[in-house]
Amino acid sequence: MDVDLLRPGMIPIAPNTKLWFEFLIEPSLLEEHLNKDHPDPSAAELLIKFLYSSMERPKDLPLIDIDDLMDNSRIDKKIEYRKRKKYECLKMLAMKIVSFWEWDLNILETRVPISLQIIFVQDLLELVSCGLNLIDFETHNSIENLSALKDEQVFAVALFHRWTLTVIINYTLSKKSSFSLGPIQDGNEDVLLKLEMQSEHSEQMLLRLLDLKRSSYTIPTINTFDPPDELRPLNCYWFKGLTVSSAEFRSQIMYDYAKYKFFKAQYEEAGIYFKMCKELNMNLTPSSFHKIKLEELNGFCAACSSKITENSSLLMQFLYSTQTNHNGILRILEIDNQIMEIPMFLRDSLELDLASMLSLGKFTASRDMLLHIHTLNAIRRASVTSGEIVLLPPEDYVTKIKFNLRGPEIFLKDLKLCMKIKDKKFRKNIKMFVCNVLLKCPKNLVKDILKDGHEEIHELFGDEDIHQLLTLPEDIPTVNIDMSKRLNRLKITQINNVNVQKLLLKNKISIEYDPSNLRNLLQQLHKMDMDPVFSILDINYEWQVPLPLQSLLIGLPNGLFKYLVIILIAKSKEMIKLNDFERAKLLLREAETETKINNSIMYSKIRQLISWEGLYTEMLQFQHEFKNFAIGDLVERCKQCLEFVQSDNLIPRQEIAEQCILTLLNVGEWEYLTKRHYNCFKLPLAIAYTCLDVNKFKGTKKSAKEVWDLILPVFDYGYSATNKRPLDGDPQCTQNRVLSQSDMMRVFLSLRDQNAIQIVLSLLVKIQNFLRDESAMELIMPFLNIWPVIPNGMNIPLRNITEVLGIVLTESLKYHPNHIILLKLKGDLQYVMGHYSSAMKWYLEAIVIVSDYFARPVLKPMIEDYVYKRMMKCCMQMQNFTQAAILCLFQEEIDYATAYKCASETNSCDALDEYYDYIWDINLLEFLIYWHTKLNHQEHRQKLLKTIGALELNANNNEEIKREAANIRKLKFLRALSQQYVHP
Predict the structure, then answer these.
(1) Which residues are in the INTS8 TPR repeats domain (predicted)?
(2) Which residues contact residue 809 at a Cβ distance below 8 angstroms, ignoring those fewer than 6 apart?
(3) Number of compact structural domains in the chain
(4) 280-338 pLDDT, tens per residue?
């Protein structure tokens, strides 16, 4: 049950909760309540309730409409009953709450509906009018002498016009969703339009208020307002307000006025007033009335400024330079290396953008400018790095120094600029940076940088360190060097350990996939490792080589050919696991080419086995990239491979032979497969025979006994392993025995042909329907009549069948996402499992395909009545009764009893009357009109009368017009359902 804490009589409520009318009885409680840490109800809830209640209609007076709120001609009508003491008290309590917020317009605009904000600001104007009729805001500009107004009047007028401008900004930018309270609806768009029409008057009024010459102003506080009671009339003690300086009052007006000008893109004028506001705030001691954030003010000033000087922030200078041909960018980066104000990501972006523009010819600069930027960025990056982890300069940076004639000079020049900083941590980081640069540079370049005894280098390194740097070898490895511990003693020696070099070579072989590079690495390894016990597969224990190939290759003597072929085959298997079939085929072709160096029988056998591995890879690629794969001669090669299966010489692996059969099955070569007999591949051959038979007899003959007898025992738990017998007497072939579930799933998930997929799914559906034995829960699928009955005494778990069916169906939809039968079956499966929202999604996806995304009527043969009936039941289960009522109309024979029952449900969770425009059946519309008239639902009744009065629904129209009107509404309704269930 929903509990409204602002309404009396609702339970349960906390003992310390106050009800809103208690403050009406005793107004002195309000301030005490608001000062609590977490008042319940909150200040915003109370304000909304007070304002709403102050607009309630007495029984003898007409209702206030929101359209009257901004219409000054109707002001007298709307305030004539609001002068009673109850309503005056409510208004004063509302004033107390906003004054408790210290007149913060941001809080008012974000927590209160705009319609109630209008009521509040008009109540304030009325409260201070004193005969001037200030509530008529259109006459404010006609007041000739503003200096004659009292402080409270000036404050109220200024607040109203500041509110007008800020509410336009906030509601336009935030696109706040409107909400309603009782009869007052938050029509934001209409209100904003009226406010924008009078915004020019508000601008003029604020400018006039800025010209007032007063030393101070009095701002109302919570003690200013005294609600009336039985003995005392309404009274306001304006002298109890907060006194603020003229500068503070004027700066608040300037700030709001300038923000509106900024919002209107009048940046020059906005900048003038932002600057004036900033000058006023420099010597200002703000009070609680001051709501200007200095950070925002500085940001606005910077955004409006069109001039960048040396006194501007370095970040502003940087951004201005990047937009104006990069003038002075090097000076800015040099300064930033000392003060570190510009974020590093902006400097990196500058480097990339400038390199791109220079390469495309969009920017012209000196050839050394980009290297200067590279160097300055590298120094800045190194300067902020911790002492333990040094960010090494990128290889291309050292390359740029090497290939630029002035590279060493630029490097030393930019380094010299940062040496002025005496911070020890900074200098330590720079020392590590320079050391890393020198370690990566060629020896001759190091000499160029260190020659002539540059002062900045001597500040970082001593003579001994420089001598060691000059005597370092060319190819010194820098792996695993802890530079933080070696800065003071650069004693780096070359690694000559043979075992370490072999380890590095093996690591490179593990990550290298280019055949020519692999050959070079293996040559080096073969020269270093002459151990006859060494096995190339020991490099990576994850490498796999098929057993027939491995047995042939291992028998060869250790050498480059053996190593290279084994690694190429192993790496091709790695690529297959990653679905990178093109690279896998390339590696196998290279391995096959290697075997052509010798025409002996051994090499010929290896070459044939590698060729079959290549065929296997191509078949897997066909299976993975179905419909996007160019078959070419794949079918003929599969047939040629199968010719070797029963030969007495070299035979392909069982996985390759099975994949050949599956590939031929998926391309429709059923007749070829049925003329062959392979003992070990009964399941795919039986599926091929069934596909051929179904295609011949169109599914009218029960001819699928072979597949049925193979699959049924897989799910029978009572058919234990102890009593399983071979199916054809051949004990050598494992598949001649009862299939394991993993073998069956491997075949099922490899199917791509639509006929084969439907045969398998219909078999599983047949078993599912038999086990469930509920006519209302049957899955609908073609070819169900070709299967025999399940014999008695079999123990088949329903859950197991459902899981397998779901897995096979999901995999099939990956490759046939627009198959109507599969989509409807997926919906049926979700329906019987009780997943009603998901069932709606799949049914609607099938309808989307049939109707070409609702561009044409849904054809009956494609979407049968049972689909609409199940969709209707799904909606009823989810309590979307209006949707269910309309879906009853889609059936050939309309189920009016169910439609009327659903239409009369009062706890429907869908959009109710939003769907009434989609109804084309006059009988259902008439029932709904009767029902809503009975319940006195006038708004629903009026909408239905408008719908039933549409010309295209006239009973005298011809059948073609009626049919067209029904089709249009059907498609609109189905589109609305798809937006909810398919594309939420």
Answers:
(1) 505-981
(2) 761, 822, 825, 826, 829
(3) 3
(4) 888 777 778 888 888 888 888 877 876 666 667 788 778 777 777 778 888 888 888 87
